[in-house]
Amino acid sequence: MSWAERLQTVLVALAALAGLAAGAAGDFGRFAEPVVLPALLMMITAVFVQLNLTQVRQVRGAGSLVICSLVLNYLVTPLLAWGLGAGLLADQPDLRIGLLLLLVTPCTDWYLVFIALARGHTGIATALLPVNLILQLMLLPVYVLLLGGNAASVSLDSLVEAIVVVLLIPLTLATTLRWVSRRADLPALDSARLDRWASAVVIPMLCVAVFAMFLWQAPTVLGHTAELLYLLLPLGVFFLVLPVLATLSARALKLPGPQRVTLTMVTVARNSPIALGIAVVAFPDRPLIALALVLGPLVELPVLAVLSQVLRHREGRTLD
């Protein structure tokens, strides 16, 4: 794990604080707005470059884990997200949609780092990445329109446009880059250099996007700080309930240790960068939705770091 990956939570928090301070110091928001979406698109493209679709076949040997993860991610989690939003954020429609976007999008990138730290099965986890990506493409509009209710206030066309811009275009570009790297005799685009570029660019581009967003929306943040803090309770409940559900499910299925770890991590980790990109495009006039998705990883990443260590020590004792 690189130093940037180890310090990701700190770097994102610093980027947010720096953007907020700059926005409070002067009227610079108009310069920051055009930076947000390009930075997110570059980051998402770099994430997709690192996907290996040929690894999907590895899931054949872990049918119970795959089915259980799909049930937890695409049935249980959306219902839990809806319940938390309706019960704890009933009078905060923008925060409800932000919470929903965060919780219904399973992670497709950084959770591999934490699975490796926890000594899970990284092969199966990697194979699940494209599966989760495809299901997100198909189901995200359904979740927002069905579970978002009146708080969503967005058309299907807008959601589809957001998914095309934020997911399909970066995926197409990443696939093209990967194809060219394998077939073209260009030293600058060989697979090893492409992988190094993709790995190195994700966190800096996320920090640039977060800095620009907080600079752009500094008045909104400063005027709604208390409302943003309302998210801490539903996020806390989610990150307590999901590991318990995943652990109980893994025990019921009698999964081996590495698969137990993998099931827990793939059902807890969320895809806040992609959800953030979709929020920026689909809800351009509702900045609290996007800001809620910036707050999410500030809670999630420390949880994943602690959870990976707990799982590692627990499975280590089991093997002993």
From TrEMBL:
<dbReference type="InterPro" id="IPR004706">
    <property type="entry name" value="Arsenical-R_Acr3"/>
</dbReference>
<feature type="transmembrane region" description="Helical">
    <location>
        <begin position="228"/>
        <end position="249"/>
    </location>
</feature>
<feature type="transmembrane region" description="Helical">
    <location>
        <begin position="35"/>
        <end position="53"/>
    </location>
</feature>
<keyword id="KW-1133">Transmembrane helix</keyword>
<keyword id="KW-0813">Transport</keyword>
<feature type="transmembrane region" description="Helical">
    <location>
        <begin position="197"/>
        <end position="216"/>
    </location>
</feature>
<feature type="transmembrane region" description="Helical">
    <location>
        <begin position="97"/>
        <end position="117"/>
    </location>
</feature>
<keyword id="KW-0812">Transmembrane</keyword>
<dbReference type="InterPro" id="IPR002657">
    <property type="entry name" value="BilAc:Na_symport/Acr3"/>
</dbReference>
<keyword id="KW-0472">Membrane</keyword>
<dbReference type="Pfam" id="PF01758">
    <property type="entry name" value="SBF"/>
</dbReference>
<protein>
    <submittedName>
        <fullName>Bile acid:sodium symporter</fullName>
    </submittedName>
</protein>
<feature type="transmembrane region" description="Helical">
    <location>
        <begin position="124"/>
        <end position="146"/>
    </location>
</feature>
<keyword id="KW-1003">Cell membrane</keyword>
<feature type="transmembrane region" description="Helical">
    <location>
        <begin position="65"/>
        <end position="85"/>
    </location>
</feature>
<feature type="transmembrane region" description="Helical">
    <location>
        <begin position="261"/>
        <end position="282"/>
    </location>
</feature>
<feature type="transmembrane region" description="Helical">
    <location>
        <begin position="288"/>
        <end position="307"/>
    </location>
</feature>
<comment type="similarity">
    <text>Belongs to the arsenical resistance-3 (ACR3) (TC 2.A.59) family.</text>
</comment>
<feature type="transmembrane region" description="Helical">
    <location>
        <begin position="158"/>
        <end position="177"/>
    </location>
</feature>
<dbReference type="InterPro" id="IPR038770">
    <property type="entry name" value="Na+/solute_symporter_sf"/>
</dbReference>
